[in-house]
Design brief:
This protein is an alpha+beta fold. The chain is built from eleven helices and five strands. The protein has a five-stranded antiparallel sheet with strand order 4-3-2-1-5, with helices on one face. The chain is elongated. Bound molecules: 2-acetamido-2-deoxy-beta-D-glucopyranose (NAG) (6 copies). The site of one 2-acetamido-2-deoxy-beta-D-glucopyranose (NAG) has 6 residues, from helix 6. One 2-acetamido-2-deoxy-beta-D-glucopyranose (NAG) binds next to loops.
Length: 305
């Protein structure tokens, strides 16, 4: 019975839990909602319309209203004079869309989307999530269209037309579409990493009872592969956050759409990666440390009378 293998066992167990939390965060409404890869904030979508109305340039506005039904136009005309109005809500959109590994969730900012003299702390009220799918890839335009369709505000026109009317940027859509392969690759890599992490746990149990170097070596190899796959998955997830928020902020700024990366998610995924590297290094200690001890002991045994 050895005690050294307990350390990599615990490290791999922590990595397994963190990895599962990464994959399942946001898979149900309010389950680790803040651990998203990326959060899209469309609460001020149509900011360009507010500016157009305040500067009196009515060409943008009249082409916009042309496509809409009277009740929405009435509501919007009232709100356009209010610089803090929630245009997203008028149209039937949600305030935010948070992107997770297997789905996205959406909801409203409470008490309001923008901080002002009375609102210091903004919280997210999740109203629902998309169905979880294994190889999920976020499509901003489809997500917004789905909200518009579901809202029932748009009788007489189509979701597609409304998004065209607010000049929803094609460059933003294309930029996120370019990340499809990365979205799918990250899911597969997380699954492989978690499989190796599970095998690492088994190898540690084997090491405890066998006590030999074979146990330590299998821990080194399995934990190292788990580390590699977890590291690459984390790098891809980080890249999705960085690239996605860059594209959304660059092209969305014009219409009042922004995005933020999730810091908590990065903590989970890189924490899991670090645990696996440590688990592998402890294996090295067990393997080569034991080897040295045996070499040091052998000459002494030889001199024994
Ligand atoms: C702050 O915003 C909320 C809603 O967004 C609004 O009801 C409130 O009047 C605003 N407060 C100030 C001081 O502007
Ligand atoms: C949402 O975006 C608007 C406009 O970019 C910004 O003013 C607001 O602070 C953002 N809200 C949150 C909660 O990030
Ligand atoms: C969240 O939204 C639901 C339904 O829209 C509402 O009943 C609930 O009070 C909201 N929660 C908070 C904390 O505002
Ligand atoms: C989501 O799942 C439910 C039940 O499993 C199903 O009825 C619904 O059609 C699904 N929605 C989508 C958009 O696939
Ligand atoms: C929204 O509704 C239109 C027509 O009713 C349909 O063509 C479109 O596919 C729907 N979009 C989504 C994302 O469900
Ligand atoms: C709208 O106007 C505000 C204040 O005048 C400005 O800060 C903002 O950048 C403008 N937004 C766009 C999209 O032009």
């Amino acid at each position: 019975m050895r005690f050294l293998p307990i350390l990599p066992f615990l490290l791999a167990l922590v990595a397994l839990i963190l990895g599962f939390l990464c994959i399942f965060a946001g898979s149900k409404p309010n389950f680790l909602e803040s651990y998203s890869i990326l959060t899209l904030n469309v609460s001020r979508i149509g900011q360009n319309l507010v500016n157009a109305s305040s500067s009196g340039s009515s060409s943008t506005l009249s082409s916009f209203f042309h496509d809409l039904t009277d009740p929405i136009v009435d509501e919007l005309e009232g709100d356009l004079n209010d610089a803090a109005a929630d245009i997203a809500k008028d149209l039937g959109l949600q305030d935010f869309y948070s992107i997770h590994i297997m789905d996205y969730c959406h909801g409203y900012y409470e008490p309001g989307p923008v901080k002002n003299a009375t609102i210091h702390k903004i919280s997210q009220n999740v109203t629902g999530c998309s169905n979880t799918t294994a190889m999920f890839a976020f499509d901003p335009r489809a997500a917004l269209e789905k909200s518009l369709n579901d809202s029932g505000h748009i009788a007489g026109t189509t979701a597609d037309k409304i998004l065209d009317s607010i000049d929803f940027p094609q460059d933003l859509e294309d930029g996120i579409h370019a990340l499809r392969a990365a979205f799918k690759a990250q899911f597969v890599l997380y699954c492989i990493a978690l499989s190796f992490t599970f095998l690492t746990l088994l190898s540690c149990i084997f090491w405890v009872f066998s006590g030999g170097r074979l146990g330590a070596c299998s821990d080194i190899i399995l934990a190292f592969f788990a580390f590699l796959f977890m590291g690459v998955a984390s790098a891809i997830a980080t890249a999705i956050g960085v690239k996605g928020s860059h594209v959304i902020n660059k092209y969305g700024h014009e219409i009042g759409v922004s995005a933020t990366r999730g810091g908590g998610f990065l903590g989970l995924t890189w924490g899991a990666t670090a645990c696996l590297l440590l688990a592998s290094m402890v294996g090295c200690f067990g393997c080569f440390g034991a080897h040295k001890r045996r070499q040091a002991v052998r000459p002494y045994n030889g001199e024994k009378p």
